[in-house]
Amino acid sequence: MTPISFRTAGESHGRALTALLEGIPAGLSLEMERDVDPQLARRQGGYGRGRRMDIESDRAEILAGVRLGETLGSPISMLVWNRDWENWTVAMSPLAPDPGENPKALRAMYLPRPGHADLVGVLKYDRRDTRDILERASARETAARVACAAVCRKLLGEFGVRIGSYVRSIGDVEAESPDSLPDDLNALSDASPVRTLDEEAGSRMMQAIDRAKEEGDTLGGIFEVVVTGLPVGLGSHVSWDRKLDGRLAGAVMSIQAIKGVEIGLGFEGARRRGSQVHDPIVLDKAADRAGGFARSSNGAGGVEGGVTTGEPVVVRGAMKPISTLMKHRLPSVDLRDGSAQAAATERSDVCAVPAAAVVGEAMVALTLADAFVEKFGGDSMTELRRNFEGYVAYLSERGWGER
Ligand code: EPS
Fold it and tell me: Cα(221) to centroid of ligand 1, in Å?
Protein backbone atom coordinates (compact mmCIF):
# COMPACT_ATOMS: atom_id res chain seq x y z
CA MET A 1 0.00 0.00 0.00
CA THR A 2 1.30 3.39 -0.89
CA PRO A 3 1.36 5.84 2.03
CA ILE A 4 -0.75 8.63 0.53
CA SER A 5 -4.14 7.85 -0.92
CA PHE A 6 -7.19 9.91 -1.73
CA ARG A 7 -10.75 9.48 -2.85
CA THR A 8 -13.38 11.95 -3.98
CA ALA A 9 -17.16 11.84 -4.03
CA GLY A 10 -19.68 14.17 -5.60
CA GLU A 11 -21.78 14.82 -8.68
CA SER A 12 -21.33 17.93 -10.79
CA HIS A 13 -24.71 19.43 -9.85
CA GLY A 14 -25.05 17.61 -6.54
CA ARG A 15 -24.83 19.35 -3.23
CA ALA A 16 -21.06 19.28 -2.83
CA LEU A 17 -17.83 17.53 -3.68
CA THR A 18 -16.05 15.83 -0.82
CA ALA A 19 -12.54 14.44 -0.56
CA LEU A 20 -10.72 12.17 1.82
CA LEU A 21 -6.93 12.33 1.86
CA GLU A 22 -4.97 9.88 3.96
CA GLY A 23 -1.28 9.53 4.80
CA ILE A 24 -0.19 13.15 5.28
CA PRO A 25 2.18 13.22 8.28
CA ALA A 26 1.30 15.19 11.41
CA GLY A 27 2.58 18.71 11.89
CA LEU A 28 2.20 20.14 8.38
CA SER A 29 1.05 23.72 8.68
CA LEU A 30 -2.17 23.97 6.66
CA GLU A 31 -4.71 26.73 6.12
CA MET A 32 -7.42 26.44 3.51
CA GLU A 33 -7.47 30.11 2.50
CA ARG A 34 -3.72 30.26 2.12
CA ASP A 35 -2.86 26.81 0.80
CA VAL A 36 -5.90 25.29 -0.90
CA ASP A 37 -8.31 27.99 -2.15
CA PRO A 38 -5.76 29.69 -4.44
CA GLN A 39 -5.23 26.35 -6.21
CA LEU A 40 -9.00 25.91 -6.60
CA ALA A 41 -9.18 29.40 -8.11
CA ARG A 42 -6.40 28.58 -10.57
CA ARG A 43 -8.35 25.51 -11.73
CA GLN A 44 -11.47 27.57 -12.36
CA GLY A 45 -9.74 29.98 -14.71
CA GLY A 46 -8.78 29.85 -18.35
CA TYR A 47 -10.18 31.27 -21.55
CA GLY A 48 -12.85 29.04 -23.07
CA ARG A 49 -14.69 28.02 -19.92
CA GLY A 50 -18.49 28.11 -19.92
CA ARG A 51 -20.96 30.04 -17.79
CA ARG A 52 -20.83 27.51 -14.97
CA MET A 53 -17.62 29.13 -13.80
CA ASP A 54 -19.47 32.43 -13.27
CA ILE A 55 -21.69 30.59 -10.80
CA GLU A 56 -19.02 28.72 -8.85
CA SER A 57 -16.39 30.28 -6.63
CA ASP A 58 -14.71 27.22 -5.18
CA ARG A 59 -13.56 27.18 -1.58
CA ALA A 60 -12.53 24.15 0.46
CA GLU A 61 -13.82 23.60 3.96
CA ILE A 62 -11.97 21.32 6.30
CA LEU A 63 -14.06 18.76 8.17
CA ALA A 64 -11.40 16.61 9.82
CA GLY A 65 -7.70 15.94 10.14
CA VAL A 66 -6.48 19.46 10.88
CA ARG A 67 -6.36 21.18 14.28
CA LEU A 68 -5.09 24.65 15.14
CA GLY A 69 -3.57 25.08 11.69
CA GLU A 70 -1.64 21.79 11.60
CA THR A 71 -2.35 18.32 10.22
CA LEU A 72 -2.88 15.57 12.80
CA GLY A 73 -1.73 12.59 10.74
CA SER A 74 -5.34 11.42 10.61
CA PRO A 75 -7.43 11.32 7.42
CA ILE A 76 -8.11 14.82 6.10
CA SER A 77 -11.68 15.34 5.00
CA MET A 78 -12.63 18.33 2.85
CA LEU A 79 -15.74 19.71 1.20
CA VAL A 80 -16.30 22.02 -1.79
CA TRP A 81 -19.89 23.25 -2.15
CA ASN A 82 -21.54 23.34 -5.60
CA ARG A 83 -23.27 26.69 -5.76
CA ASP A 84 -25.19 25.52 -8.83
CA TRP A 85 -26.89 22.89 -6.63
CA GLU A 86 -29.58 25.47 -5.79
CA ASN A 87 -30.75 25.19 -9.40
CA TRP A 88 -30.73 21.38 -9.32
CA THR A 89 -32.38 20.46 -6.00
CA VAL A 90 -35.18 18.53 -7.73
CA ALA A 91 -33.15 16.87 -10.50
CA MET A 92 -30.30 15.89 -8.17
CA SER A 93 -32.28 15.14 -5.02
CA PRO A 94 -31.23 11.99 -3.15
CA LEU A 95 -34.94 11.31 -2.48
CA ALA A 96 -37.27 9.38 -4.79
CA PRO A 97 -39.28 11.86 -6.88
CA ASP A 98 -42.79 12.83 -5.92
CA PRO A 99 -45.19 10.81 -8.16
CA GLY A 100 -46.77 14.09 -9.29
CA GLU A 101 -43.41 15.66 -10.21
CA ASN A 102 -43.15 17.24 -13.66
CA PRO A 103 -40.81 14.80 -15.52
CA LYS A 104 -39.03 17.75 -17.16
CA ALA A 105 -37.83 18.91 -13.74
CA LEU A 106 -35.80 15.70 -13.43
CA ARG A 107 -33.66 16.80 -16.39
CA ALA A 108 -33.14 13.32 -17.79
CA MET A 109 -30.86 12.95 -20.84
CA TYR A 110 -31.45 10.11 -23.29
CA LEU A 111 -29.16 11.04 -26.20
CA PRO A 112 -25.62 9.86 -25.28
CA ARG A 113 -22.77 12.09 -26.46
CA PRO A 114 -19.97 10.34 -28.37
CA GLY A 115 -16.76 10.82 -26.38
CA HIS A 116 -18.48 11.16 -22.99
CA ALA A 117 -19.08 8.30 -20.54
CA ASP A 118 -22.85 8.54 -21.25
CA LEU A 119 -23.39 5.36 -23.31
CA VAL A 120 -20.81 3.03 -21.78
CA GLY A 121 -21.96 4.14 -18.33
CA VAL A 122 -25.68 3.46 -18.80
CA LEU A 123 -24.92 0.04 -20.29
CA LYS A 124 -22.45 -0.95 -17.62
CA TYR A 125 -24.47 0.34 -14.64
CA ASP A 126 -27.90 -0.59 -15.99
CA ARG A 127 -29.27 2.97 -15.96
CA ARG A 128 -31.72 4.52 -18.42
CA ASP A 129 -31.01 8.23 -17.85
CA THR A 130 -27.47 9.26 -18.87
CA ARG A 131 -27.55 11.91 -16.12
CA ASP A 132 -26.92 9.04 -13.67
CA ILE A 133 -23.52 8.71 -15.36
CA LEU A 134 -22.54 12.12 -16.65
CA GLU A 135 -22.92 13.89 -13.34
CA ARG A 136 -20.08 11.85 -11.89
CA ALA A 137 -18.03 11.59 -15.09
CA SER A 138 -17.94 15.40 -15.26
CA ALA A 139 -14.60 17.13 -14.78
CA ARG A 140 -16.19 19.13 -11.98
CA GLU A 141 -14.82 16.29 -9.82
CA THR A 142 -11.30 17.58 -10.41
CA ALA A 143 -11.96 20.41 -7.93
CA ALA A 144 -11.83 17.79 -5.16
CA ARG A 145 -8.62 16.33 -6.60
CA VAL A 146 -7.04 19.78 -6.65
CA ALA A 147 -8.01 20.30 -2.99
CA CYS A 148 -6.23 17.05 -2.00
CA ALA A 149 -3.27 17.90 -4.18
CA ALA A 150 -2.92 21.35 -2.64
CA VAL A 151 -2.10 19.64 0.67
CA CYS A 152 0.50 17.46 -1.10
CA ARG A 153 1.92 20.50 -2.83
CA LYS A 154 2.29 22.17 0.58
CA LEU A 155 4.12 19.12 1.91
CA LEU A 156 6.50 18.98 -1.08
CA GLY A 157 7.03 22.74 -0.87
CA GLU A 158 8.49 22.28 2.64
CA PHE A 159 11.36 20.43 0.92
CA GLY A 160 11.90 22.97 -1.85
CA VAL A 161 9.88 21.10 -4.52
CA ARG A 162 8.05 23.40 -6.95
CA ILE A 163 5.34 22.37 -9.39
CA GLY A 164 4.23 24.44 -12.36
CA SER A 165 2.60 24.03 -15.73
CA TYR A 166 1.89 25.77 -19.00
CA VAL A 167 -0.08 25.15 -22.17
CA ARG A 168 1.88 24.14 -25.27
CA SER A 169 -0.94 23.93 -27.78
CA ILE A 170 -4.66 24.44 -28.22
CA GLY A 171 -6.23 22.91 -31.31
CA ASP A 172 -3.67 23.34 -34.09
CA VAL A 173 -2.09 26.46 -32.54
CA GLU A 174 1.30 25.58 -31.10
CA ALA A 175 3.30 27.82 -28.78
CA GLU A 176 7.06 28.21 -29.25
CA SER A 177 8.84 26.14 -26.59
CA PRO A 178 11.16 28.34 -24.56
CA ASP A 179 14.84 27.24 -24.39
CA SER A 180 14.73 27.31 -20.63
CA LEU A 181 11.77 27.63 -18.32
CA PRO A 182 11.48 30.40 -15.73
CA ASP A 183 12.03 29.44 -12.06
CA ASP A 184 8.53 30.53 -11.15
CA LEU A 185 6.71 28.96 -14.07
CA ASN A 186 3.20 29.62 -12.77
CA ALA A 187 3.86 33.31 -12.17
CA LEU A 188 4.16 33.60 -15.97
CA SER A 189 1.63 31.03 -17.14
CA ASP A 190 -1.09 32.09 -14.69
CA ALA A 191 -0.84 35.62 -16.11
CA SER A 192 -1.95 34.35 -19.54
CA PRO A 193 -5.67 33.64 -20.11
CA VAL A 194 -4.68 30.42 -21.87
CA ARG A 195 -1.74 29.72 -19.50
CA THR A 196 0.83 29.80 -22.26
CA LEU A 197 4.33 31.34 -22.20
CA ASP A 198 4.17 32.52 -25.82
CA GLU A 199 2.05 35.67 -25.94
CA GLU A 200 1.66 35.73 -29.71
CA ALA A 201 0.52 32.09 -29.84
CA GLY A 202 -1.71 32.86 -26.85
CA SER A 203 -3.72 35.41 -28.88
CA ARG A 204 -4.07 32.93 -31.71
CA MET A 205 -5.24 30.29 -29.24
CA MET A 206 -7.93 32.66 -27.96
CA GLN A 207 -9.01 33.42 -31.53
CA ALA A 208 -9.23 29.70 -32.22
CA ILE A 209 -11.39 29.25 -29.09
CA ASP A 210 -13.65 32.15 -30.19
CA ARG A 211 -14.03 30.59 -33.63
CA ALA A 212 -14.81 27.15 -32.20
CA LYS A 213 -17.40 28.73 -29.90
CA GLU A 214 -19.09 30.60 -32.76
CA GLU A 215 -19.21 27.38 -34.73
CA GLY A 216 -20.58 25.42 -31.76
CA ASP A 217 -17.50 23.21 -31.62
CA THR A 218 -14.80 22.44 -29.02
CA LEU A 219 -10.98 22.31 -28.80
CA GLY A 220 -8.40 20.18 -27.01
CA GLY A 221 -4.69 20.72 -26.55
CA ILE A 222 -1.46 19.80 -24.79
CA PHE A 223 -0.13 20.98 -21.42
CA GLU A 224 3.18 20.36 -19.68
CA VAL A 225 3.82 19.98 -15.96
CA VAL A 226 7.33 20.70 -14.68
CA VAL A 227 8.60 19.84 -11.19
CA THR A 228 11.91 21.13 -9.82
CA GLY A 229 13.77 20.47 -6.57
CA LEU A 230 13.20 16.71 -6.30
CA PRO A 231 15.97 14.50 -4.98
CA VAL A 232 17.36 11.55 -6.93
CA GLY A 233 15.70 8.29 -5.88
CA LEU A 234 11.90 8.66 -5.76
CA GLY A 235 10.18 5.62 -7.28
CA SER A 236 11.97 2.36 -7.98
CA HIS A 237 13.20 0.15 -10.80
CA VAL A 238 12.51 -3.09 -8.92
CA SER A 239 8.84 -3.72 -9.72
CA TRP A 240 6.48 -2.51 -12.42
CA ASP A 241 4.04 -0.82 -10.10
CA ARG A 242 6.74 1.08 -8.22
CA LYS A 243 8.12 2.76 -11.35
CA LEU A 244 7.50 6.46 -11.00
CA ASP A 245 7.00 7.12 -14.73
CA GLY A 246 4.22 4.52 -14.82
CA ARG A 247 2.61 6.04 -11.75
CA LEU A 248 2.81 9.57 -13.16
CA ALA A 249 1.43 8.49 -16.53
CA GLY A 250 -1.49 6.65 -14.92
CA ALA A 251 -2.27 9.60 -12.68
CA VAL A 252 -2.29 12.13 -15.52
CA MET A 253 -4.16 9.78 -17.87
CA SER A 254 -6.90 9.46 -15.23
CA ILE A 255 -7.88 13.10 -15.73
CA GLN A 256 -11.13 13.47 -17.66
CA ALA A 257 -10.56 13.81 -21.46
CA ILE A 258 -6.82 13.02 -21.35
CA LYS A 259 -5.88 10.66 -24.18
CA GLY A 260 -2.08 10.82 -24.19
CA VAL A 261 0.77 11.29 -21.73
CA GLU A 262 4.46 11.82 -22.43
CA ILE A 263 7.44 12.02 -20.09
CA GLY A 264 10.47 14.00 -21.22
CA LEU A 265 10.99 13.57 -24.97
CA GLY A 266 8.12 11.08 -25.03
CA PHE A 267 7.12 10.00 -28.54
CA GLU A 268 9.77 12.27 -30.09
CA GLY A 269 12.48 10.10 -28.51
CA ALA A 270 11.30 7.13 -30.57
CA ARG A 271 12.23 8.98 -33.76
CA ARG A 272 15.80 9.78 -32.68
CA ARG A 273 18.98 7.73 -32.30
CA GLY A 274 20.12 6.78 -28.79
CA SER A 275 22.98 9.27 -28.86
CA GLN A 276 20.40 12.03 -29.46
CA VAL A 277 18.12 10.94 -26.64
CA HIS A 278 20.04 9.98 -23.50
CA ASP A 279 21.33 12.58 -21.11
CA PRO A 280 25.12 12.76 -20.59
CA ILE A 281 26.21 12.33 -16.96
CA VAL A 282 28.42 15.11 -15.64
CA LEU A 283 29.95 15.90 -12.28
CA ASP A 284 28.34 18.80 -10.50
CA LYS A 285 29.38 19.23 -6.92
CA ALA A 286 26.52 21.63 -6.32
CA ALA A 287 23.97 18.92 -7.18
CA ASP A 288 23.57 17.69 -3.59
CA ARG A 289 20.20 16.08 -4.17
CA ALA A 290 21.59 14.04 -7.05
CA GLY A 291 24.73 12.91 -5.19
CA GLY A 292 27.03 15.34 -7.01
CA PHE A 293 25.91 14.27 -10.48
CA ALA A 294 23.98 16.25 -13.07
CA ARG A 295 22.83 15.82 -16.68
CA SER A 296 23.69 18.12 -19.52
CA SER A 297 20.25 17.53 -21.06
CA ASN A 298 16.92 16.23 -19.73
CA GLY A 299 15.35 14.12 -22.46
CA ALA A 300 14.41 11.59 -19.80
CA GLY A 301 12.11 14.17 -18.21
CA GLY A 302 13.69 13.61 -14.80
CA VAL A 303 12.98 9.87 -14.58
CA GLU A 304 15.32 6.97 -15.48
CA GLY A 305 14.44 3.35 -14.70
CA GLY A 306 11.32 4.54 -12.92
CA VAL A 307 13.41 6.65 -10.50
CA THR A 308 13.85 10.43 -10.27
CA THR A 309 17.26 11.66 -11.47
CA GLY A 310 17.24 14.96 -9.61
CA GLU A 311 16.61 16.83 -12.88
CA PRO A 312 13.19 18.46 -13.41
CA VAL A 313 10.33 16.00 -13.88
CA VAL A 314 8.52 16.87 -17.13
CA VAL A 315 5.11 15.34 -17.91
CA ARG A 316 2.81 16.30 -20.80
CA GLY A 317 -0.86 15.53 -21.14
CA ALA A 318 -2.91 15.59 -24.37
CA MET A 319 -6.57 16.54 -23.89
CA LYS A 320 -9.17 15.68 -26.48
CA PRO A 321 -11.81 18.29 -27.35
CA ILE A 322 -14.76 18.37 -24.94
CA SER A 323 -17.51 16.04 -26.07
CA THR A 324 -20.53 18.31 -25.61
CA LEU A 325 -21.01 19.95 -29.03
CA MET A 326 -23.47 22.83 -29.35
CA LYS A 327 -23.69 22.53 -33.15
CA HIS A 328 -22.00 19.79 -35.23
CA ARG A 329 -23.92 17.37 -33.03
CA LEU A 330 -22.76 13.86 -33.83
CA PRO A 331 -25.02 10.90 -34.59
CA SER A 332 -26.40 9.11 -31.57
CA VAL A 333 -29.28 6.86 -30.64
CA ASP A 334 -32.26 7.72 -28.41
CA LEU A 335 -32.08 5.34 -25.47
CA ARG A 336 -35.90 5.39 -25.12
CA ASP A 337 -36.87 4.09 -28.55
CA GLY A 338 -33.67 3.30 -30.46
CA SER A 339 -34.29 6.00 -33.07
CA ALA A 340 -31.33 7.72 -34.70
CA GLN A 341 -30.92 11.21 -33.23
CA ALA A 342 -28.26 13.88 -32.81
CA ALA A 343 -26.36 13.68 -29.50
CA ALA A 344 -27.56 15.72 -26.54
CA THR A 345 -26.28 19.18 -25.84
CA GLU A 346 -26.21 21.24 -22.67
CA ARG A 347 -24.18 24.06 -21.17
CA SER A 348 -20.47 23.22 -21.23
CA ASP A 349 -16.98 24.58 -21.83
CA VAL A 350 -15.51 25.22 -25.31
CA CYS A 351 -11.95 24.55 -24.18
CA ALA A 352 -10.66 23.53 -20.75
CA VAL A 353 -6.98 22.89 -21.53
CA PRO A 354 -5.70 25.71 -19.25
CA ALA A 355 -7.70 24.19 -16.36
CA ALA A 356 -6.53 20.68 -17.26
CA ALA A 357 -2.94 21.88 -16.86
CA VAL A 358 -3.72 22.84 -13.25
CA VAL A 359 -5.34 19.44 -12.72
CA GLY A 360 -2.23 17.87 -14.30
CA GLU A 361 -0.13 19.63 -11.65
CA ALA A 362 -2.49 18.23 -9.03
CA MET A 363 -2.19 14.61 -10.17
CA VAL A 364 1.59 14.97 -10.39
CA ALA A 365 1.69 16.51 -6.87
CA LEU A 366 -0.37 13.63 -5.45
CA THR A 367 1.88 11.04 -7.10
CA LEU A 368 5.12 12.71 -6.05
CA ALA A 369 4.02 13.32 -2.46
CA ASP A 370 3.13 9.63 -2.27
CA ALA A 371 6.56 8.64 -3.62
CA PHE A 372 8.23 11.15 -1.29
CA VAL A 373 6.58 9.83 1.88
CA GLU A 374 7.19 6.28 0.65
CA LYS A 375 10.93 7.02 0.37
CA PHE A 376 11.39 9.01 3.55
CA GLY A 377 8.61 7.68 5.74
CA GLY A 378 7.51 9.15 9.01
CA ASP A 379 4.36 9.86 10.97
CA SER A 380 5.33 13.47 11.58
CA MET A 381 6.89 16.23 9.55
CA THR A 382 9.81 16.19 12.02
CA GLU A 383 10.47 12.55 11.26
CA LEU A 384 10.04 13.03 7.51
CA ARG A 385 12.45 15.95 7.58
CA ARG A 386 15.02 14.03 9.63
CA ASN A 387 14.92 11.12 7.21
CA PHE A 388 15.12 13.44 4.21
CA GLU A 389 18.07 15.36 5.62
CA GLY A 390 19.87 12.12 6.48
CA TYR A 391 19.49 10.97 2.88
CA VAL A 392 20.67 14.27 1.41
CA ALA A 393 23.68 14.19 3.78
CA TYR A 394 24.47 10.65 2.58
CA LEU A 395 24.20 11.74 -1.06
CA SER A 396 26.51 14.69 -0.60
CA GLU A 397 29.08 12.57 1.24
CA ARG A 398 29.26 9.61 -1.12
CA GLY A 399 31.94 9.11 -3.71
CA TRP A 400 33.69 12.42 -3.94
CA GLY A 401 36.13 12.58 -1.04
CA GLU A 402 37.13 16.19 -1.46
CA ARG A 403 33.57 17.45 -1.01
C1 EPS B 1 -18.56 19.68 -17.49
C2 EPS B 1 -19.53 20.58 -17.95
C3 EPS B 1 -19.57 21.99 -17.45
C4 EPS B 1 -18.21 22.39 -16.92
C5 EPS B 1 -17.84 21.36 -15.89
C6 EPS B 1 -17.49 20.08 -16.56
O7 EPS B 1 -20.45 22.13 -16.36
P8 EPS B 1 -21.98 22.47 -16.54
O9 EPS B 1 -22.58 21.24 -17.14
O10 EPS B 1 -22.51 22.73 -15.14
O11 EPS B 1 -22.06 23.68 -17.42
O12 EPS B 1 -18.20 23.70 -16.44
O13 EPS B 1 -16.75 21.76 -15.13
C14 EPS B 1 -16.98 22.26 -13.90
C15 EPS B 1 -18.18 22.53 -13.40
C16 EPS B 1 -15.75 22.48 -13.16
O17 EPS B 1 -15.82 22.93 -12.01
O18 EPS B 1 -14.69 22.21 -13.72
C19 EPS B 1 -18.56 18.28 -17.92
O20 EPS B 1 -19.58 17.82 -18.48
O21 EPS B 1 -17.57 17.56 -17.73
Answer: 18
